[in-house]
Amino acid sequence: MAAASGLRQALRPAKRRVFFALRPDPRVRASLAQAALHMHGATQGRCVRDDNIHLTLAFVGAVGQQDLARLLEPPSGVFTSAFVLTLDHCGCWAEKGIGWAAASHTPDGLRVLAENLAGWLRDAGFELDNRPFRPHVTLVRNAQCVPPKGPMAPVEWRIAEFALIESLPMPGGVSYLPLRSWPLR
Description:
Blueprint: H1 2-11, E1 16-22, H2 26-43, E2 46-47, E3 55-63, H3 65-71, E4 83-87, E5 89-93, E6 98-102, H4 108-123, E7 137-141, E8 155-159, E9 161-170, E10 173-183
Antiparallel strand pairs: 1-3, 1-9, 2-7, 4-8, 5-6, 6-7, 9-10
């Protein structure tokens, strides 16, 4: 057992690619996987693997062990109260070939959580994109974007925690490994 752990550690790169995200519970994941299949029928492309479905709060990028340790201890000021997110809108970004689901109304809790994380990360010296926060769940990649046929069936998602996720390259894509999660108030 110790040898296997040592081998995994030896094979792990010096820098690890990480991001903060919301991960759906099994019921929400199943609903979003169904939405991905529906979208795939119209846009082709490649459905996101069910276990990779998430909503990114803050993309950090490649970090070393010391920075990773700091990321695993967010300050209490980052946390917000739990909230409900209703994904009821879908679309496609043609320039990126991304089919997505989003909320027609972003809850204050989601906006504040993302702002708190970004503020803490920047204050801690991490460089983040300066793009505005566009909360969405990627459902299809390499999509041939066409206007969606009909509205998306709403998916109600109770957000009670967020997580730090590691992106691991795999043959044919990536796998997302949750490193730690934190409950919201």
